[in-house]
From TrEMBL:
It comes from Frisingicoccus caecimuris. Keywords: Membrane, Transmembrane, Transmembrane helix. InterPro entries: SpoVA. Pfam families: SpoVAC_SpoVAEB (PF03862). This is Stage V sporulation protein AC. The chain crosses the membrane at residues 20-44, 56-75, 81-104, 124-142.
Length: 148
């Protein structure tokens, strides 16, 4: 197979993606997840919970739902439709941790789950910390010179 034939083959088997439709699906799907979170928060607040407690319970329930969806192998079909819309930070992070735990559980508690659980989530944590430090430094500089 020469280079031209290979290129034709790759174009033939590569799925065609409508970028604007994918963007719209991700936007709507992520928005729905955020609306679910906001509804949970509003309900907890209506039950008389303080702001921080309502936030904590909302976060825990969104994590629980994401872990259950991962455990029942439903994240694949959801992300096939929603794309990056499912990767709203809390649900995407919970999925990355739970999927590693499920994948490596057969290797045992210590050498499987314990050592591999943050395979995917580790870089997210690292870059989240570095980015927050960087923007915190910018904010501190702007505060120091009186711009904020």
């Amino acid at each position: 197979m020469n280079k031209k034939e290979y290129q034709d083959y790759v174009e033939q088997v590569t799925p065609k993606v409508n970028g604007w439709l994918s963007f719209l699906k991700a936007f709507v799907s992520g928005g729905i997840i955020c609306v679910i979170g906001q509804c949970l928060y509003n309900w907890f607040k209506s039950q008389g919970m303080m702001h921080t407690l309502a936030n904590n319970y909302t976060t825990l329930i969104l994590i629980l739902i994401s872990v259950l969806l991962t455990g029942f192998n439903l994240v694949g079909p959801i992300t096939k439709f929603a794309g990056a819309g499912y990767l709203v930070p809390i649900t995407g992070f919970a999925n990355s941790v739970a999927s590693c735990a499920i994948e490596f559980k057969r290797e045992g508690q210590v050498f499987g789950i314990g050592s591999q659980i943050f395979n995917i989530a580790g870089p997210v944590i690292l870059y989240g910390i570095v980015t927050s430090w960087f923007f915190g430094l910018i904010y501190w500089i702007l505060m120091s010179i009186g711009m904020v």
